[in-house]
From TrEMBL, chains A, B, C, D, E, F:
<dbReference type="GO" id="GO:0016301">
    <property type="term" value="F:kinase activity"/>
</dbReference>
<feature type="domain" description="Carbohydrate kinase PfkB">
    <location>
        <begin position="6"/>
        <end position="307"/>
    </location>
</feature>
<dbReference type="Pfam" id="PF00294">
    <property type="entry name" value="PfkB"/>
</dbReference>
<dbReference type="InterPro" id="IPR011611">
    <property type="entry name" value="PfkB_dom"/>
</dbReference>
<keyword id="KW-0418">Kinase</keyword>
<dbReference type="InterPro" id="IPR052700">
    <property type="entry name" value="Carb_kinase_PfkB-like"/>
</dbReference>
<comment type="similarity">
    <text>Belongs to the carbohydrate kinase PfkB family.</text>
</comment>
<keyword id="KW-0808">Transferase</keyword>
<dbReference type="InterPro" id="IPR029056">
    <property type="entry name" value="Ribokinase-like"/>
</dbReference>
<protein>
    <submittedName>
        <fullName>Sugar kinase</fullName>
    </submittedName>
</protein>
């Protein structure tokens, strides 16, 4: 029986404010105004590729909340499961982002405490939501933000799992939100529910205290928990404006690793959200192509690589463009300099 | 003996974010980035006119705090008494402002809770500060923001008074911060220390439950408290883009009212901060001209009227410009169309 | 039985390009990029007020079409019934708009010929669409654009009527698209199907060759055709930047005219789409308030007046704002200068 | 025998730098970059109306000079008689302009000393230039800038006169360049050569020490000198954003005054250059319509009025637009709200 | 006998709309507004280097046409042979351009069908035009746009040839306008008239079905047709932001090939028009230096390479700059970091 | 005894006007508006790092002078020793700057003659200034600008030296201001007073006619004059957008050279002022760390390298950022991709 959604995600929607080009937060007269947030980035990218997606979040009931909702819709993501905070202290969390240029690193200032999202509760969402989707995704950020979001996320993971949804989880460890041991303890409680697991090599080592090579680390998660697929991205930062990006995916059932040539010397315009874009591509590959990990790898790598060239958190490439990029990457057919 | 400062003021410094021109908060891709805040507006205007001023406030120890400090300095205001909040939850309060056009009113969304300023304590400032200024100014907003800012403000009023400073106070009642009775109770406790008192007719009636005409109301404050000077502004809002502005000042010692023709049909570009600009002009008139209320009136009215034509919270006219505007307003000398 | 939509509308979606502020088309280095179109303006305004709406249109299958679709979604309008033109000559119609300032009038240059919308056919839309809405709206522009759009529109009017939808029609006569006699002949053929009829006094006289006062003209339409409600807007253009706006609505069943004080001296920022905004408000009033013509009048007048203060074709005020404007217009409750 | 040009003009071309909108010179991060200058404004407006015009000036031989030349060409004005200054101290004169809003006046800061134009000499221009035009125009600004420009201008007036050109002269008195008596003495020396004389009532009184009403003043010039036509503009400045504009023209041969209803309540966007635009319209009327002073009046008033609505010094309306504005001003034909 | 023009060119002038920086067509709120078109790019570059050039084209008689004409003049190109389309369906062709960043390619969306240029006829131009120029240039785009432009172009080639002009032709094959065989058939008919022939190696192979190395291919054209000079550019696209550019020129009379070191690792800002800039430099070299192919090579390579660093289609470097770049490229004299 | 200032500097403050991004001076509609000047760049950078600094300069007494003063204050630099020019020819010097992209070099057009700064005299500054600082800095540009600034600078060097200040001098040779021999003769007269000497290898060779390797050249200055420290920067310009930067410092007393790995492949955003930033870092290192040349080297190299990534002349990095960059450069601690 067909579900209304392919993918629902729980996460905070943030106002992103960034000075234009190479300007700095401490100077200048304008901020570019965008929205972002790890989980929103994921569903918005997946939606562009063709999945029917929706965002579960809580926004302030003011002009900023309306702005965020409008942007969500602009991205082709459903706002059916956005709830609103009418209390006087309602607020939209903010982050300030500044581009880097070697030897100056990109930098971020967060102002996301006390945001309306931190108050979201399972009871605010309709019961039927849990049966409406094929896949539910959330990340370690949502777990780390506040005790309430942690409880809500854990409860939702259980409820979606019960309703038959696939559970996708991205560790996305942030040292400014919680410590490694806190993350480890919490995440290990939800790993029994997770089907698709995104975890970088560094995080696996530092947070989960794994050792060995990346492949054996990936496999070890599937041995300890009933995880079907583990994906791990590999980014080399040559400078703030030049990255190389690739990934490895492990399919536990097949006991097989999927890899390809990385995208080398990406001309980075805005790196934020490229990790989330990877997840959007990988989930698209899995959900739209019968859990084909080769597709997940190719869509993940391409969607992430090209996200680096797009200003803002959110991807903006549709399936046609991504398919063209994959074909070029694989060197299929004649190469043209320009798409006309 | 000469003091380092003519005017010190305690108040919150806010990041102001506003869509350009007639654009809306719920749409658009840029915010104009400015700083503002009632007390900062006052000292920045007074500084432009020639007073040596400084701001007492608390800023987050991050890029936003540095930005705010830089802007304070740009305005010619001393940052000697800015203190910094290094805690992880440090934040700069924000307000979002959108211009109006009849029949659409200007609108403001506040996001100032939990700001670093709310934590400011008297002990963070150096002891010598209290003897360093001729005049100390604060407003009802600082009283209303949080219990801690209220205590700090009341304590500072007492300490500055003891050190021989003139105390200036602007009621600036904001219904979204506290109720009328709360304001009345609190402010009546500080009125015994106040020398120069700014209170609009509406606030006098609604908050202090005064009746009678505006002049008798003004006088009544000086009868109940040892207040020397009471000033009351009078604004007529023809539309969001057209205002008329004037004021009345009462000098208790002289038992005399000062009035002049209002500025009619002001071409309003940005109304925010024009009430604070009035105070900056009036305090300049009093402090630079031996408490001459005629000067206070003329500088107050001119500084406020012209502030309406300047984008952002902060005044930007120096003494030469204000003197020219006063001369034009009084019709002194030939009128030219343009200043060349 | 509840329908999926309150309002569906058939019409062209145009790319609007306008120089910023008072700049001219013949000079300058940027265009502001927006979308517009009479029917889109109507549904987008109605959606902001709370109706569930959708747009029936045809877009080129290229980046411009994707842009237009994204904007439709941003406005809260469903893109379920947008179809795409994959032929090599697919194009999005364009209009260039330049603001006026007395004595310079606003001006428009159209480049909408050969647009993909002109090719839209009934068969491209799913059968179930006709039963999915409470109301269908289109305008004389759609009739005038091309023979094919005329046929499609007439066919859709009949099909929606058969399926029980209310038919709303706006004459919106444009002399650069067809002649008065052409319009009259065509529109008279569809009036037998129309329930809610929008026609200005000038158009009634010049196109339908009516005479008498505006009220008798309005009534005459309901006598000749089975029209339930006729609405006629009244705009006085004092200058390109100052308008006065009001309307009259006639309810045939009640044989009653509804009127109110016009909005006087509106501070016009962008006049385009304000007539369409009237329709969105009026339809909201009728559809959400049981065909209450008083509500239609108040929502229509307020939505149109405030649209004049918003850049671009599309309204951007939600129900809360419009209700506040109506209360202010009726002088209910204390008036504040600013919404905080 | 047909001449190459209808109108040549000698004058300085300035770089104009202005903060956007209502921003101030003392703040902000951008300047709008334009060119202007009294005589350039005249020929550029006349060129738009259809005269073949050219500019006689001297520019620095650097990127700023190239920029100025490109703008001159953009306006449809010939650059055949621009000469270049290759000396190391070559510079383009600059003026900074800031818009006003009541009670803040527009303001100008000049930085035009030592400009390359001040070095222009008759010998730099080709001999054939003097026979190539029907009319030569210059202004009191060129006379006042430097002794060398004064000598060059006087010499050119004589040489053009000898070659049969009509001489047009605009007093354009600027108190910051010379005194009234200096101006009087110098201009009286060239009036014997002048055919068309532009002088405002104020200047006639204050500089030429005339009295009586404006009409008798205008006539008196033609009695003292062999001047054919005298034009005098009349501007009422209601506020920096609202002006009323009209003029009177006196034809000595006919002994007749031409007047019409002024343009009332012009919505002023940028007032600079509107006096020069008047001259461009008046000269067009005279040169293209056989010295018809009615045409000169109508084209002058319309071109000037509409210039006030255009950003920058330079007019941008062609003959079609001006004809439409004149028709609307005279109330000929039905009035439409918008040019489509 | 001296001709009025060195170079006239027939081609379409397009409005170019591009999102700023790395923004995308499918998002964003502004377009940068420029003009471009292969032949305009050629004459505008040649004009900057010092040739007297003019454009033969047809523009709509509306504000967009005026804008295009103004830009043509701004570039120093004569508008004597621009004709205007007054029909109601007159339009300026458009193309939308988006920058790339690896792995995202630059992309173009065309909307040039039904443009006024497609209607241009030989009879609209004055007879004397054909004798007024030393050289006539057009490209395969003009041939491909429409049957009418093909006929007009072929007819003009013949007429200019008869009048003694040198004929320059750039194949500029565009697969979205016509097929290879169509191009081959058409172009082979005009090659008997061509003196200077621009054709890339790829096009020679794919369209003209040539084989062998690039030099033998170039020579073969001169063996089959009375072509004097063949030029072939060689571009290596390392990424959308890094190119290497060089060329080979073959002089049939001398039977000699001209080559130089390519410009390596060009920092590409806007690649569009750099091929056309090559032609402008090469034609300048040939026409201004007695058909010296060494000059053509050096000016062509330098003008093209530097065009890549200039936003928009049109070159903006004058002879002094190009000479400096050539000297630097050849390592002549000390190298400075900056031109002061 | 503690001095009021750590560092005072004498130099011109210029208005800098630059087209945005890769736009050119000869085109475009905006200039970015900044201030700069070699000595201001030095003190502003040093102030950000924590030194108490002030600028000695002369500004016009107009809006441009006020703008410059405000920017000086914004940078945390004292305006106590700014004096104002009230004469009618007062002006702020200007320079126009355009970015480069290979093969187009960055370019500068100066318009700084006759600036108010050229009139600055020692007597305009208060006597106590000379005893108020630990260090005085100026450059060869101030010596070269005009005879008067040369005399003033030499006089100030002597007066500061007498008052016990350390004298810092940067040769900063500019061939467009004076010749090598002029520079040599003048500078050799002040070298007897200099303690800290900044001179590049090229300048040492070309201007001072030194030979040998860079180290022996550096040492030779300390042998001929009582100079304590000589610093020499080494910049490799790979292209306008990629530089490598390092330096050598020689301490005469220790007879020791300090060097470190250069910063390679800096992603250059705006190269202007990076040499001055070096001096600000080096002086900070020396003055804040007891003349520790290792600190001077590290702070100099880091401050200069990162300045290249900041738009405008002026540095904007505080001590925390520079310390972080130095740690990263030395590879201390784990490397993160982003500062959060």
């Amino acid at each position: 029986m067909k579900k209304d959604f392919d993918l629902l995600s729980l996460g905070e929607i943030l106002l992103r404010l960034s000075p234009p080009d190479n300007e700095r937060i401490v100077r200048g007269e304008t901020f570019q105004k965008q929205v972002g947030g790890a989980e929103l980035n994921v569903v918005s990218g997946a939606s562009l590729l063709g999945l029917r997606t929706g965002m579960i979040s809580k926004l302030p009931d003011n002009a900023l909340g309306v702005y965020a909702k409008n942007r969500v819709r602009f991205c082709g993501v459903s706002d059916d499961y956005l709830v609103y905070d009418e209390e006087p202290d309602a607020r939209l969390g903010i982050y300030y982002y500044e581009n880097g240029a070697y030897p100056r690193k990109p930098s971020v200032v967060y102002d996301r405490r006390h945001a309306s999202f931190c108050k979201i509760r399972v009871e605010e969402l309709p019961e039927e939501m849990f049966a409406s989707t094929r896949c539910f995704h959330t990340s370690g950020i949502t777990l780390a933000l506040a005790e309430n979001t942690r409880n809500t996320a854990v409860e939702m993971i259980k409820r979606f799992k019960e309703s038959g949804a696939i559970i996708s989880f991205d560790v996305n460890f942030r040292g400014n939100l919680w410590t490694g041991p806190e993350a480890k303890e919490c995440i290990e409680k939800i790993l029994p529910y997770v089907d698709i697991f995104f975890c970088s090599e560094d995080t696996a080592r530092l947070t989960f205290l794994k050792d060995g090579d990346v492949k054996s680390i990936m496999k070890s998660f599937t041995e300890e928990y009933p995880i079907s697929i583990v994906a791990s991205t590999q980014r080399i930062v040559h400078s703030p404006k030049v990255h190389t990006f690739g990934s490895v995916i492990y399919n536990a059932k097949e006991d097989r690793y999927y890899e390809e040539e990385p995208y080398r010397d990406i001309e980075v315009v805005d790196r934020i959200g490229s990790g989330d874009a990877y997840i959007s591509g990988a989930l698209y590959g899995l959900l739209a192509h019968g859990f084909d990990c080769r597709k997940a790898l190719e869509y993940g790598d391409a969607t992430s690589s090209v996200k680096n060239t797009i200003p803002g958190d959110l991807p903006s490439c549709d399936l046609k463009e991504i398919d063209r990029i994959i074909r070029n990457h694989k060197g299929v057919g004649g190469q043209v300099e320009m798409d006309r």
